[in-house]
């Protein structure tokens, strides 16, 4: 990994290096801290991080850790909220080798590795009309390993479709390294022979539990509502075969009994027809009365929101106006119904409205099937948690707890919980939840830097336990897993007899307490108040980060160096050290290459962040601070003489091609450490002002990427020539801004942390565009640009003054209606780059491409290509890492690709072996009067 510090002289790290490839053993202080952080409010720094890519790796880690007496914690995505994914021992980080997905014929089941992201699984199942049962709110980030190990559920899955109830088979690695595959008869038979004593003990435990009528009834009662407190004791009463008992005990065991290396789920229907209703009630009691009636119907979700949660989002754009007029006791239900057909959906809507009609609602209940309206309703629900995170005081953390009550007690329990939060001073706290299951989430902010604040938290949690367990006999953990924060309270909820069963289970599977100690069961009554995560002020732009990790799947440097969450965690630690007067030299040395040099600055992290943080802004600020006088002078020179810089760049390309003709592209690429590409573009031809002709005026600004980098094929038209031809063909009179060669939007310098010089360049371009676009009567003609990153920057810079369109946006709106297009015969690959995603114009791009070909190939799991301006030349490993999954997803007949950024296309061409060009090239060929096959 780039910039990795040398492996520290640790006995366990050295031992792991002997059994794993060196790249899979992480022992430098910065990455141990960063990789060891999860979404919870606990902080433990692992002694070493071992990336496991196979069962053999897992067995080697377990064997080595056992020999050295060190505990092992398995970690998937780290979205865990209860501290079950942190450790001061060996952190076994699940690698991409476990990101496997095998869909059975008919998609009735799916076999998954623990490294698969839940949302990606559902995306693969969607064409079959199926999905997995669990649907946690973090499904776009969390992985199958965590979903199963925590028995995560969600808004629609309830208890019937969670991992426990949709489990079909499992492959598990036990603490002693033994592998059991319950989907393989030979494996089961061998396991019965080798581990007969373990299975016999489980069988006895099950028989004893069933024979104890009171205990069996207690267990069944506890699982009538959501419950993830402790081990899945229902396995002892639901099954007779000890193999079934074993596999179902693994669900919700949080890595304390073994490692789930594969799991097969029975899939569930993904109903295509959906409708939502947001219903307001004057009181919580009225809303909960409606829940009791709706629970008898076929409704998919009923989300309860108290007045505080509604108030937290009522002023956001698009929220229903009635929310601002609600009384202090008001509440709302978000109801969703789903069905396979529209008539069936109507029947379910009518039934739900029949329950709601006689109840005292503030407005008549009504369902909508309009996706935009439904999305606006769900924005109310989804916006509550981030709203608290965004408003919290710097230095505090956001805590989200989840409990469950018997549904008939939900109203009273909600009022009691509100009262408890007020009594303990958590006035900002909000309550929402999955009402059909009696499952409430309560969110509040907490300062763990002060002993008095920690004591306040302790008193509050004691009152919560009294309320949930003693008064309502509910679940202290409904769906987030027991973790560290409820481990001391398991016996409080379950009682000594059931808890002793859990201790016997732990001892049977893990006699050496090797696996994730301190999680699920902890005899220390103060354990939940120890190892609390500090949240020091770092930089205002990132202080709101709650370290949830939602950003990570979108980040091109995740798993190469650091993710956005890990960058913020690292900088927070650096800020803490600085504030304490301690040395920051070690972290400064490591953070440069790990945190700054490989950040693409694409901003996709902000699109997934609950509080909208763009970690790239932090990186650009820190790059600016470390810029020395020589680089500052170079930036000023570039801004003042951009035409000279562009000419020098084109000259460099010509010299590079001359050298490549002598030594070959491969050697030149190696000598330049990847800066030279195997299919490096030729220098672009100079921009020529088009001849005046009649037509609708449009301003075209050829961006510098296309002006410098031409096509990879000698003699091929440059991008600005192709777009000018297209605009003219469609009947537009093309105007260019004056002195094009001198102009640049400044994106390049902005990403390098030189905002002043970048803005100077953007200002000059803005003035040139305004002049060129003026119609002489106070209005402006549209402006078209041919690079998405530049278009996005200038849209912001000229917001409210001038309409700027990326080429594919203009092509969708203005060219397609005017051009006669003959589709290409072959499949064409599409890369939707980060700027297009951020501008939400990806559907327009797809529609332009579909107009040109009926065979679109869009590889999954690729967001930003990682070229990041010129990082593809200076840090080519980032580009290679970001695109590592693309080549295998391109079919043999797909011999070309399109995108909308010239530098992105250079990297894609280099790493796929297929020429990627602007979609303008394909559109131009397909719209020629004598169009031929343009696929290749």
TrEMBL record:
This protein's record includes keyword Metal-binding: yes
Domain FAD-binding PCMH-type: 41-270
InterPro entries: 4Fe4S_Fe-S-bd, 4Fe4S_Fe_S_CS, Cys_rich_dom, FAD-bd_oxidored_4_C, FAD-bd_PCMH, FAD-bd_PCMH-like_sf, FAD-bd_PCMH_sub1, FAD-bd_PCMH_sub2
All residue ranges annotated as the 4Fe-4S ferredoxin-type domain in the record: 534-565, 592-613
Keywords: FAD, Flavoprotein, Iron, Iron-sulfur, Metal-binding, Oxidoreductase, Transit peptide
Pfam family, one: Fer4_8
Matching PROSITE patterns: 4FE4S_FER_1 (PS00198), 4FE4S_FER_2 (PS51379), FAD_PCMH (PS51387)
The keyword Iron-sulfur is annotated on this UniProt entry: yes
Enzyme Commission designation: 1.1.2.4
Cofactor: FAD
Family matches, as PANTHER family: D-LACTATE DEHYDROGENASE, D-LACTATE DEHYDROGENASE, MITOCHONDRIAL-RELATED
Family under the similarity heading: Belongs to the FAD-binding oxidoreductase/transferase type 4 family.
Name this protein carries in UniProt: D-lactate dehydrogenase (cytochrome)
Natural source organism: Ramlibacter alkalitolerans
Phylogenetic placement of the source organism: Bacteria, Pseudomonadati, Pseudomonadota, Betaproteobacteria, Burkholderiales
């Amino acid at each position: 990994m780039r910039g990795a510090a040398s492996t520290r002289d640790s006995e366990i790290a050295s031992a792991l290096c002997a059994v794993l490839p060196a790249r899979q053993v992480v022992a430098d202080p910065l990455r141990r801290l960063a990789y060891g952080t999860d979404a919870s409010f606990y902080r433990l720094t692992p002694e070493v991080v071992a990336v496991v890519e196979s069962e053999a790796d897992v067995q080697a880690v377990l064997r080595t850790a056992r020999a050295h007496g060190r505990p092992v914690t398995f970690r998937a995505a780290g979205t865990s909220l209860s501290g079950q994914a942190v450790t001061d021992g060996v952190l076994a980080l699940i690698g991409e080798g476990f990101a496997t997905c095998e869909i059975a014929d008919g998609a009735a089941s799916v076999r998954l590795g623990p490294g698969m992201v839940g949302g990606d699984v559902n995306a693969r199942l969607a064409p079959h009309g199926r999905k997995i049962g669990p649907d946690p709110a973090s499904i776009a980030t969390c992985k199958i390993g965590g979903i199963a190990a925590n028995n995560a559920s969600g808004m629609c899955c309830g208890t019937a479709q969670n991992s426990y109830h949709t489990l079909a088979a499992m492959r598990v690695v036990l603490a002693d390294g033994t592998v059991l595959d319950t989907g393989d008869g030979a494996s089961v038979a061998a396991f019965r022979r080798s581990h007969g004593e373990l299975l016999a003990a489980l069988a006895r435990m099950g028989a004893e539990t069933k024979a104890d009528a009171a205990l069996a009834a207690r267990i069944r009662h506890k699982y009538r509502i959501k419950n993830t407190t402790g081990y899945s004791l229902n396995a002892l009463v639901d099954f007779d075969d000890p193999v079934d008992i074993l596999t179902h005990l693994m669900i919700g065991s949080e890595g304390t009994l073994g490692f789930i290396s594969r799991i097969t789920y029975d899939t569930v229907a993904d109903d295509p027809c959906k409708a939502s209703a947001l219903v307001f009630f004057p009181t919580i009691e009225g809303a909960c009365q409606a829940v009791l009636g709706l629970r008898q119907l076929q409704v998919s979700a009923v989300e309860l929101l108290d007045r505080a949660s509604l108030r937290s989002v009522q002023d956001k754009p698009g929220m229903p106006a009635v929310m601002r007029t609600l009384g202090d006791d008001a509440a709302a239900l978000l109801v969703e119904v789903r069905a396979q057909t529209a008539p069936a959906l109507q029947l379910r809507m009518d039934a739900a409205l029949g329950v709601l009609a006689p109840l005292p609602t503030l407005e008549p209940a009504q369902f909508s099937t309009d996706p935009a309206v439904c999305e606006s309703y769900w924005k109310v629900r989804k916006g509550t948690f981030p709203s608290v995170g965004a408003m919290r005081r710097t230095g505090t953390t956001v805590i989200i707890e989840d409990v469950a009550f018997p549904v008939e007690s939900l109203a009273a329990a909600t009022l009691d919980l509100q009262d408890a939060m007020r009594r303990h001073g958590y006035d900002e706290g909000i309550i929402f939840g999955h009402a059909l299951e009696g499952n409430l989430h309560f969110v509040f902010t907490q300062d763990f830097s002060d002993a008095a604040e920690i004591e306040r938290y302790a008193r509050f949690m004691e009152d919560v336990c009294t309320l949930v367990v003693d008064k309502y006999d509910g679940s202290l953990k409904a769906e987030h897993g027991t973790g560290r924060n409820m481990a001391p309270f398991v016996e409080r909820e379950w009682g000594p007899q059931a808890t002793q069963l859990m201790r016997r289970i732990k001892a049977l599977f893990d006699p050496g307490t090797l696996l994730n100690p301190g999680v699920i069961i902890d005899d220390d009554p103060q354990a939940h108040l120890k190892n609390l995560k500090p949240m020091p002020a770092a930089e205002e732009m990132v202080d709101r980060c709650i370290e949830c990790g939602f950003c990570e799947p979108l980040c091109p440097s995740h798993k190469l160096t650091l993710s956005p969450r890990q960058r913020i965690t690292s900088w927070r630690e650096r800020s803490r050290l600085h504030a304490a007067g301690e040395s920051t030299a070690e972290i400064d040395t490591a953070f440069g290459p790990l945190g700054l040099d490989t950040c693409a600055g694409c901003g996709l992290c902000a699109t997934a962040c609950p509080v909208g943080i763009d970690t790239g802004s932090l990186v650009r600020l820190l790059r600016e601070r470390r810029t020395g006088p020589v680089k500052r002078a170079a930036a000023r020179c570039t801004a003042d003489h951009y035409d000279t810089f562009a000419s020098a760049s084109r000259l460099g390309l010509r010299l590079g091609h001359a050298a490549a003709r002598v030594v070959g592209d491969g050697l030149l690429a190696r000598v330049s450490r990847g800066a030279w590409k195997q299919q490096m573009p030729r220098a672009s031809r100079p921009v020529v002002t088009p001849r005046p002709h009649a037509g609708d005026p449009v301003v075209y600004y050829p961006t510098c990427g296309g002006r410098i980098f031409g096509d990879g094929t000698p003699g091929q038209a440059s991008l600005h020539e192709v777009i000018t031809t297209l605009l003219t063909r469609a009947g537009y009179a093309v105007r260019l801004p004056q002195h094009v060669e001198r102009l640049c939007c400044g994106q390049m310098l902005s990403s390098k942390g030189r905002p002043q010089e970048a803005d100077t360049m953007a200002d000059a371009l803005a003035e040139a565009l305004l002049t060129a676009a003026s119609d002489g009567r106070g209005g402006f003609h549209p402006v078209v640009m041919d690079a998405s990153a530049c278009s996005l920057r200038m849209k912001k810079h000229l917001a409210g003054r001038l309409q700027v369109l990326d080429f594919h946006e203009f092509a969708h709106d203005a060219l397609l209606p005017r051009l006669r297009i003959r589709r290409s015969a072959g499949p064409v690959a599409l890369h939707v780059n980060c700027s297009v995603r951020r501008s939400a114009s990806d559907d327009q791009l797809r529609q332009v491409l579909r107009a040109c070909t009926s065979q679109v190939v869009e590889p999954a799991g690729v967001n930003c290509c990682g070229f990041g301006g010129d990082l593809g030349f200076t840090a080519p490993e980032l580009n290679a890492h970001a695109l590592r999954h693309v080549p295998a997803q391109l079919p043999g007949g797909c011999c070309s690709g399109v995108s909308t950024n010239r530098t992105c296309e250079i990297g894609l061409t280099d790493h796929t072996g297929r020429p990627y060009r602007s979609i303008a090239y394909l559109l131009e060929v397909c719209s020629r009067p004598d169009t031929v096959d343009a696929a290749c």
